[in-house]
Amino acid sequence: MNFRVIALFLTVVTVAIFLAACTPDTVSPPDLADAAHVYSNDCASCHREDRTGDHGKNITQPELSDFTEASLEAFLLDHKTAKNLTPEQVAIMANWLKTTS
């Protein structure tokens, strides 16, 4: 009897850990608002508020469709005007760019 209880407990714990690991990272609405604020302050002067580009490239959804969030993060970490962003801000910006039009 004790063996079955222990085995069931270990199975439940293993499944819970697996499911937690499979849960996608999400960005909360305040983080998205922060991303929009960062974009307006640091990016819009070159990419325009509507992200269609001016001095900077067009960064609307059709233009970003080939990028993953990870590749956007790598790009942003190397981008001249994004160097003052923390890694967390870069991740939030990459998510914002991929999930907004």
Summary of the model, kept short:
The chain is mostly helical. Helix content is 66%, strand content 0%.
* CATH fourth-tier homologous superfamily: Cytochrome c-like domain
* DSSP helix fraction: 55-70%
CATH topology title? Cytochrome Bc1 Complex, Chain D, domain 2
Could you tell me the number of beta strands? Answer: 0
Task: Classify the secondary structure makeup into a structural class.
Answer: mainly alpha
- In angstroms, what is the radius of gyration? 20 Å
Biggest β-sheet description: none
Any guess at the CATH architecture? Orthogonal Bundle
How are the secondary structure elements laid out?
Elements lengths: L1 H21 L6 H19 L13 H4 L4 H10 L8 H13 L2
Helix pairs in contact: 2-5, 4-5
Structure description:
The protein is mainly alpha-helical. Helix content is 66%, strand content 0%. It has one domain (29-99): Cytochrome c-like domain (Cytochrome Bc1 Complex, Chain D, domain 2), CATH 1.10.760.10. The protein has helices at residues 2-22, 29-47, 61-64, 69-78, 87-99. It is built from 5 helices and no strands.
